[in-house]
Structure formats: structure tokens, C-alpha cells
């Protein structure tokens, strides 16, 4: 009993609830400040888990492993709840009943992170959680083999990796391996979702999501680092077969789809040139959406993903042709203060994406789709119901966003501030007759930075009808979402 009490006292002295600045996030990095110590008369100085500066509020769950705080282990929790009204695409059904519109309540993301610098050279990272959990989770009532489905099967490991810092206290080279979102193509292929400006990320940038990856994560060997103004990450990945995606793969036809035969490695890389402050670099992969005026960031970026014979299609009636997956992008990102005295800041992103999934590849996707089926076929494609639109396809996409952080004392008395934003995704796909435009307009109420915020978002999107071998826009629909995010 005495030993147990002593152990509890030691843990209590080291494991405390501390707060980081409100702009920190799952993909953020805060350099450990000078270590604070607790001393009583007649007692030796010992390490404390407190890592902020004197006088700041604290809400960080972190345990320091050494006196300086350079070795630590940390746990974070995040939940995003959606209340949504959606105008359904034509033909939409919900549990076999036609629905012109829907209202649903869901959990967009629920996550737990556990990570830390456990020695001078070793970093450990895990993330566990679930996504897109609404009333249709586990639907249909029976799987294709006739067994009952289970709405409780949702949570899984998103990330599990170890990373080795080659040069002590220098970010020049980090080598890691495991299940990871370290990615090529763009910053939005590996977003820190707790710190984004908009309610949700442009998911098209997570190019193979849930097709040959696990919610954008892959089993990879990677190297990343920062050398002067250059930030880089390169990876060789072992993609999952499309047969393990949980959905019935499309039949082999004249349009390209992920191949059901063969297995090749995937190569990817992302390179950034940083003109002013350096970006956060602690958590593997994840890139911050906005620092809320705490940093001065201007970057140019270029990225790619390539995989040989990843796709296939049928020429004529018998010949099977394999095609490479080749994706690349260039973009610029800006996030900086406008007036440091009032706390105003601006955030902007503009990117060009050249996407080659093979001839006429096209995939509809609806985020946490509130509909279960459709009675109206669109080009023989699946998943066209509810709030879906052509999110992934062979062609060219331009994506842009702009946000403005208003003054910190907007409501007075520490009641938070507002961050309004706009988004636009313009896609020129081979299989679509006209350029697709999806537009979002929204506002964040930052109650306590990213740690507690409400977001109201309106999206306007096109819906489609069959036009020969292509699809053509036939009108537009909208959805309105209120999200509450809490993060510690």
C-alpha cells in the first residue's frame, strides 16, 4: 500500500493538465519552452509536466520524460459534431424511401492521438478514431453474403509509426515507417483537420482515399525534413488492394478504374519553399491549416504521386490495358498577421492539380452521405445520391480558399472572435461535359481558438444526368451544416 501511495504521488507531480496556445492543433508543433520546476523548502528540484510560459492558461495533457521537457509523451482528444440540412440529388432514397431533402446528426471525426519524443532521436505516433458516423453507419442491414452488418464497427488506427531523427536537435532528416498520412501531392493531402480554416478540407486532394489507402493513410517508408527554407517529404508506399476497400469494385469496362490484378509500389513527394517563418514540423505529415496570426507563412509547394499499372480498362471487348496513376500539383499558401495589435490575420491558398487516373476515370463522393441509394442512374456510376458530386477524376482541378481572422476582442471580455471564409473547387474532368464548380461560404466562431469553435457552412454543388458516354450538369443543390469542434 505504501509503495502504491508513493507511485501515485510521483505521477501526480509529473502528469498535469496544461494549456497550449489556442492555435495549436493535431498537426501543430509548439517548441518546448524553458522548463519550469516545482521546489519546496528542503526538497530537491524535480521535473514538471508544465511546458508553457508562466501565467498562461493550460489545457494540454502532456507528461515530460526529462527535466527540460525535450522528451515527452502527449495525448489529445478531438470531436467534430455535425447538424446538417441537405437538398438531395434527384432520385435519392433513404432506407428505400425517396427523399428530396434530409436532416441528419453525425460525428464527422472523433479522434485520439498519443505521441511523443521519447529520446533524443526517437518519435512515436499513434492516432485512433472514427469518421463519418451518422444514422446510416453499417447500412445496409445485410451485407452481400447475407450476414447482418454492424453499426459499431467504425473506429480504427489511422496512424501507427516510429520516426528516427538522424541529427540531434536538427530537422534536417527524419526517417520513419508505419501506417502514416505522410503524403505527396499537396498540404491538403495531409491536413491537420483541427486547425483548418474551412469547416472541411478539399477531400479530392486525398486522391486515393479509401480506395487503395486507409482513410488517406498508407503503409510507408518515408524521409522528411527541413533544410534552410526547403521543407520536403518523400515516401515509398505499399498500397492496399482495391478489393479490401469494403465496396464492390467496378467491373472492367471502357473507363479506367483501380486494377484488380497486380501490385506495384507507390512513390510520392511534396516540396515546399518557405519565404518567412518555418512551418510546424513535429507531428509526421500533418500540416496546419492556420496559425491564427501567430506565424508569418508564405510558401510555394509542388507535389506528386505515381504508381505503375495502378489502373486498368478494357479496349474493345477483350484487350485489358493497364495505365499508370500520375498525379501532381503546384500551389501557394499564405497565413500571416495583418495587425498584430488587434490580432487580425489572413489565410489564402491557391492550387492547380493535374490528375491522371487513366482514361475517363470518375468517382462520385459525398462527405458522410446522408442518403443510402438512388433510383436515377448517372452514367452507370455508383454513389451519386444524397450530397455526392464528382470529387475524383482524370482531369484538372483548381482549388482556392480565403479566410480573414477578425480582431481578437470582437465580442469583448474574452468571448471569442470570427473567422469567415470562402472556398471554390473547379474541376475540368474528361468524363464531364462542363467545368464543375463547388462553392462553400462559411464562418467560424472561435470560442477558444481551435480548441472550441462553431462553424456554419453553406455548400452549393451541381448534380448530373447521363449525356451519351459522359455526364452533364442538370441543376444545383445545397447543404447547410453547423459543426461544433472541441479539441484538447
Automatic annotation (TrEMBL):
Cleavable signal peptide: 1-18
Stretch list, region Disordered: 23-57
This protein's UniProt keywords: Signal
Protein name: Porin
Organism lineage: Bacteria, Pseudomonadati, Bacteroidota, Cytophagia, Cytophagales
Amino acid at each position: 500500500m505504501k509503495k502504491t501511495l508513493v507511485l501515485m504521488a510521483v505521477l501526480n507531480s509529473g502528469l498535469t493538465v496544461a494549456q497550449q496556445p489556442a492555435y495549436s492543433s493535431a498537426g501543430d508543433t509548439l517548441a518546448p519552452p524553458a522548463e519550469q520546476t516545482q521546489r519546496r523548502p528542503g526538497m530537491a528540484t524535480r521535473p514538471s509536466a508544465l511546458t508553457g510560459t508562466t501565467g498562461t492558461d493550460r489545457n494540454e495533457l502532456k507528461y515530460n520524460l526529462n527535466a527540460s521537457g525535450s522528451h515527452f509523451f502527449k495525448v489529445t482528444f478531438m470531436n467534430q459534431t455535425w447538424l446538417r440540412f441537405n437538398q438531395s440529388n434527384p432520385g435519392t432514397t433513404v432506407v428505400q424511401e425517396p427523399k428530396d431533402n434530409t436532416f441528419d446528426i453525425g460525428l464527422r471525426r472523433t479522434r485520439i492521438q498519443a505521441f511523443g519524443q521519447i529520446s533524443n532521436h526517437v518519435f512515436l505516433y499513434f492516432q485512433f478514431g472514427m469518421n463519418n458516423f451518422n444514422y446510416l453507419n453499417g447500412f445496409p442491414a445485410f451485407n452481400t453474403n447475407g450476414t447482418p452488418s454492424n453499426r459499431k464497427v467504425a473506429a480504427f488506427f489511422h496512424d501507427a509509426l516510429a520516426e528516427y531523427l538522424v541529427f540531434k536537435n536538427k530537422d534536417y532528416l527524419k526517417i520513419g515507417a508505419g501506417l502514416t498520412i505522410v503524403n505527396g501531392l499537396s498540404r491538403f493531402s495531409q491536413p491537420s483537420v483541427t486547425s483548418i480554416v474551412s469547416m472541411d478540407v478539399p477531400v479530392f486532394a486525398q486522391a486515393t482515399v479509401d480506395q487503395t489507402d486507409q482513410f488517406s493513410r498508407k503503409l510507408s517508408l518515408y524521409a522528411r525534413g527541413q533544410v534552410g527554407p526547403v521543407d520536403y517529404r518523400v515516401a515509398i508506399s505499399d498500397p492496399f488492394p482495391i478489393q479490401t476497400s469494403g465496396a464492390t469494385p467496378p467491373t472492367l469496362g471502357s473507363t479506367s478504374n483501380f486494377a484488380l490484378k497486380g501490385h506495384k509500389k507507390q512513390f510520392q513527394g511534396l516540396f515546399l519553399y518557405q519565404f518567412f517563418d518555418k512551418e510546424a514540423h513535429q507531428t509526421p505529415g500533418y500540416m496546419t491549416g492556420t496559425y491564427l496570426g501567430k506565424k508569418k507563412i508564405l510558401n510555394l509547394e509542388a507535389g506528386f504521386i505515381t504508381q505503375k499499372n495502378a489502373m486498368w480498362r478494357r479496349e474493345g471487348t477483350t484487350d485489358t490495358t493497364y495505365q499508370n496513376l500520375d498525379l501532381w500539383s503546384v500551389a501557394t499558401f499564405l497565413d500571416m498577421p495583418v495587425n498584430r495589435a488587434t490580432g487580425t490575420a489572413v489565410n489564402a491558398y491557391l492550387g492547380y492539380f493535374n490528375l491522371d487516373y487513366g482514361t475517363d476515370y470518375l468517382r462520385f463522393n459525398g462527405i458522410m452521405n446522408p442518403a443510402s441509394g438512388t433510383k436515377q442512374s448517372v452514367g452507370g456510376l455508383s454513389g451519386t445520391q444524397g450530397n455526392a458530386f464528382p470529387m475524383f477524376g482524370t482531369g484538372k482541378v483548381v482549388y482556392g480558399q480565403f479566410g480573414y481572422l477578425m480582431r481578437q476582442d470582437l465580442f469583448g471580455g474574452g468571448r471569442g472572435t470570427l473567422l469567415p471564409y470562402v472556398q471554390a473547387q473547379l474541376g475540368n474532368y474528361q468524363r464531364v461535359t462542363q467545368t464543375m464548380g463547388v462553392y462553400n461560404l462559411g464562418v467560424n466562431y472561435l470560442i477558444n481558438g481551435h480548441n472550441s469553435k462553431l462553424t456554419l457552412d453553406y455548400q452549393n454543388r451541381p448534380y448530373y444526368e447521363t449525356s451519351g458516354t459522359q455526364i452533364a450538369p442538370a441543376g444545383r443543390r445545397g447543404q447547410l451544416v453547423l459543426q461544433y469542434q472541441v479539441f484538447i
